[in-house]
Amino acid sequence: MSAAGQSGEVPARSKRADAVRNQQTLLAAAAAVFVTSGVDAPIREIAAKAGVGMGTIYRHFPSRADLVVAVYRHQVEACAEAGPSLLGSAGSPLAALRQWVDLFVDFLVTKHGLAKALQSDSSGFDALHTYFLDRLVPVCAQLLDAAADAGEIRPGTHAYELMRGIGNLCIGRDSDPRYNPRRLVDLLLQGLQRPQSS
């Protein structure tokens, strides 16, 4: 086997790793733009944030729906991976829960545009919703259990109920600029806290 043949494999693997990393950077940039400008944000705004040309985005994601679904999946995975990481690095389980909920709210802002982007593909939306629940409910439950075990929140809050409540508080953000769901989510989290004894 020639040296060129032997060395041909390593660059191919590096190229694949670079392509994956570039796609993750692009998805993170698109998610950030969707949070601030909505899922109808111009592709050029996403390209500028990602530091790529618009052709690069269209090559990876031929339609806006393809991009929105990829961002949705990217954010679900980021939220799922963040839970255990935050538990290990935050000052307390409650601090980890608060930081995770902040990520979750960012995700929900993007999610509200998903149905419109998919338009009539209700089966695709249903599959993504099931994926979302399967990945995130256990992570939220882990954070709630840790905070309850530490005595920081009252026990008995179910992850699905909390996530559903947060989701309901986030509805309407797009149609009313005076409405700040984060403030109400913060009040909800304060209500979970166990009163401190004097």
Structure characteristics:
10 helices; 198 residues; 0% strand; disordered N terminus; mainly alpha
Question: Short description, anyone?
Answer:
This protein has helices at residues 3-7, 9-37, 43-50, 54-60, 64-89, 93-111, 114-118, 122-149, 159-170, 181-192. It is mostly helical and 198 residues long.
What can you see in these coordinates?
This protein is mainly alpha-helical and 198 residues long. It is 76% helix and 0% strand. The chain contains 10 helices and no strands. The N and C termini lie far apart (77 Å).
What best-fitting shape do the alpha-carbon axes yield? Answer: globular
User: Could you report the average pLDDT, rounded to the nearest whole number?
Assistant: 83
- Determine the fraction of residues in helical runs and give it as a percent range: over 70%
Give me the secondary-structure category. mainly alpha
Low-confidence stretches: 1-10
Order of helices and strands: HHHHHHHHHH
Please tally the β strands and state the result: 0
